[in-house]
Design a protein that fits this description.
Elements: E1 11-17, E2 22-28, E3 34-38, E4 43-45, E5 50-52, H1 54-65, E6 69-74, H2 86-93, E7 96-100, H3 103-113, E8 129-131, E9 136-139, E10 142-148, E11 157-161, E12 164-168, H4 188-198, E13 206-209, E14 223-225, H5 226-232, H6 242-254, H7 262-269
Parallel strand pairs: 3-6, 6-7, 7-8, 12-13
Antiparallel strand pairs: 1-2, 2-3, 4-5, 9-10, 10-11, 11-12, 13-14
This protein binds fe (ii) ion.
Fe (ii) ion binds next to loops.
């Protein structure tokens, strides 16, 4: 079964966060119908350790304005560059928080990195639903499918909804290329295969990016098509071999600094956007492991 079979075209509203270059989405069947929220952002000021819900509240306002019922709060992966607002959004709007089932691999790695409390169980229970590869689900009248696309992380999922695919960090806009593969469990060979899988979809399939890092002189953008990516993605256009891609990716990744928000992001995102439990003074703390990353 494919997600494109006899499903109406989804309506998509994008929300760009210039602080983290992240694009969040509301994908819905029709006004008054059902929606999924994809890759939401909880604003975080690294200097002060303060969070804010300004970005998330824009999604809340849109959902209320369109009178939508939230069915799903989807994460394409455990992001390393922004905190997820999934926990906050579920409280405001309801819906099930879902991510790929291999999130347990990521939780195991980072439970050790952050020496998390024994009560943190790396079995995915922090999420309401764990998608298996190719699992089919519904967003109101829309048929959707979780496509396993490991490489950037081992748990990455892309979500196909009708003729639209929310690709997470498998692909960026054609002039930016692809995401790094050097986080724990990342693998450039896997990413190449995942990208080729997405680019085997029909040429007019709309691909929605999770990020844009626009080069000087162009505005931020977040939607392209399979045909555009195959013709002109600077890293993976048609004709680039797996070996050439892996060599390019490995060389680039070796020169990249860690994302500014990786330490707070991962601690919150492996908890489905929830903060760690408060300590005995009633306050919440995030950790910084020294000389580990
Ligand atoms: Fe990412």
């Amino acid at each position: 079964m494919t997600a494109t079979a006899a499903t109406p075209a989804p309506q998509v509203q994008a929300f760009f966060d210039p602080a983290t270059w992240t694009v969040s989405y509301v994908v819905f069947d029709h006004a008054g119908g059902h929606c999924a929220l994809v890759d939401s952002v909880l604003d975080y000021d690294a200097k002060s350790g303060r969070t804010s819900t300004r970005s998330a509240d824009a999604l809340v306002a849109f959902v209320k304005d369109k009178a939508l019922t939230v069915q799903w709060i989807l994460e394409t992966h455990a992001h390393a560059d922004h905190l997820s607002a999934a926990h906050y959004l579920r409280k405001q709007l309801g819906g099930q928080i879902a991510i790929g089932a291999a999130i347990t691999d990521v939780q195991n790695v980072f439970k050790a990195v952050f020496h998390l409390e024994p009560e943190f169980h790396p079995d995915g229970r922090q999420f309401d639903h764990l998608f298996q590869p190719d699992e089919v689900f519904a967003i109101g009248d829309l048929r959707a499918q979780a496509l396993s696309v490991p490489g950037h992380t081992p748990a990455c999922m892309a979500y196909q909804v009708g003729n639209a695919v929310f690709v997470g960090d498998t692909l960026f806009m054609p002039d930016v290329g692809t995401a790094r593969c050097d986080f724990p469990g990342g693998n450039a060979h896997d990413l190449f295969q995942s990208v080729r899988k997405l680019l085997a979809l029909p040429g007019d399939t709309r691909l929605y990016m999770c990020h844009d890092y626009p080069p000087e002189g162009r505005d931020a953008a977040w939607v392209s098509t399979v045909a555009q990516q195959r013709a002109s993605n600077i890293h993976v256009h048609d004709g680039v071999s797996e070996d050439a891609f892996v060599a390019m990716r490995s060389q680039r990744d070796a020169g990249l600094a860690m994302p500014t928000q990786i330490l707070p992001s991962v601690q919150v995102n492996i908890r489905a956007g929830a903060m760690p439990p408060a300590e005995s003074d009633g306050r919440v703390y995030l950790k910084v492991p020294v000389n580990v990353l």
